[in-house]
Amino acid sequence: MARQLLRSSLTTQLFLQDESRSFLSASDVESIVLSLRSADATNSYSDYHAAQLIRLLLCDEIDLQLYSVMVKKCLCSSSVVCKLFVGTFECSEGELSFLGDLSNAYVKLLHLYLLKLLNTDLRFEESCVSIVGSLVSLEFHSEYSQLCVSLFSQFFKSGCLWCVSLEDFADLRAKYESLFVFDESYICWARESRVDCSQNDTLSKLRDEITISHFYSHNPYPLWKQVDALMLKDPHFRDRFLPSLPNAFDSASVESILVAGCGAGQEAVFYSLLFPGSTVVAIDLSAASLLHAKRLADKYNASNLSFRQVDLLELTSEQSSFDLVVSSGVLHHLEIPLQGLKALSDLRSSGGFLKIGLYSAAARSVVEQARSILPRSFRRNPWLSSAELVQARRFLVESFSSAPGLSNLLLFEDFFEINAFRDLLFNPCEHTYDPCSIAAMLKECGLEFDGFQFQNIAVLNTYWKLFPHDVTGKDLVNWQAFEQLFPRAFIGMYNFWCH
User: Fold this and answer.
1) Mind listing the pLDDT tens digit for each residue in 412-435?
2) Rounded to whole angstroms, how far apart are CA atoms 126 and 40?
């Protein structure tokens, strides 16, 4: 109990005293984001913007990772903190003491970055590893307490993927032991989320799906923590998400939605909040992933959302049909993706739409390059231990200088979290596509392409500059030519609508 109180008083001193976290509204978020975009456009971040970002990161009902780039740019406005991102931090006692000065807005923002976000910057990660080594060698000092807690939190967020001696972290934990109560809940949750689902694999009929089921049962991914619930729950702002839907799609008539292969639940929760009057059914083969998804749904009170552990190929239109069927990052892991797409198409109600996500061959060419240079014992082995995953990742990092283009792996957020890293490079079944192969796939299923959906509208604007006559953006032959010019345009995956 004493340890818990000490930990609580520490976090309260730093964060919970900020009363504004209780009153942040959707309008507040929009105002803050507009201010930050203005600063970003002119590269003129200040203490004021750091304070605004702190307000954002204290809000539990927005997808904080969306603002990680802004946070990093703002942090780099501080000459000392910037050294962490450019690899020049010297770990002197003066610099370490600066990182313990919680009265400084940039330092407070730095700690929130470590505690709330997943770092996706390799130089920053390497700076953190150096700081851990320095703190181990230094005597206990109370001003380093929050820094130790924040570093430990980020280390666990990565799944202990950093190339750092676990003995160093054990020594650091022993030195500041009273502060490290918080990580026990993470460890317990991690154990729960990797429950043995072997008894449930009879749900699968195809050999590849048994393999995929085992893979995701032991490797739940992606482990989402936040959804833009604050914006989605506000009717005024919720409507702003709707223009990304196809013109022919009548959002007002959506009564039923299927999220096929929901994983850890972010997309299922997103659609349940985007269409609060609809019934959303989310299915997945992995009990571990569904466990996390249900917790996420409970967190956001997604009462119109239900979950089922079932194979998407086992659902039939006689059992149910849906106005909207969503399946992102699923079909390309089936042995026969076309079979999966046909099954999903059959589940649509009359006039229903599909939203599909598939891997881009061009964007993931660096993933194939990485697989090809890994030591033979590591290649496409989905059951590598955590220690072996750390070794494989370090091998790739050390190969950046000798393998041209390999450093493009750093464009993938998955490179920075252990479950995601395993999924990125060691998934047992994976297919990739290009726009023309998507066109052929849709034609075989009798489906019509309704356009890509982008988080970054700059991609679409660039496309229109090259192909101004394709005002709808639906010409997949043009998109094939576009991707040859910009092979990383679909670095996440192709997300597209069809009917």
Assistant:
1) 999 999 989 999 999 988 999 999
2) 26
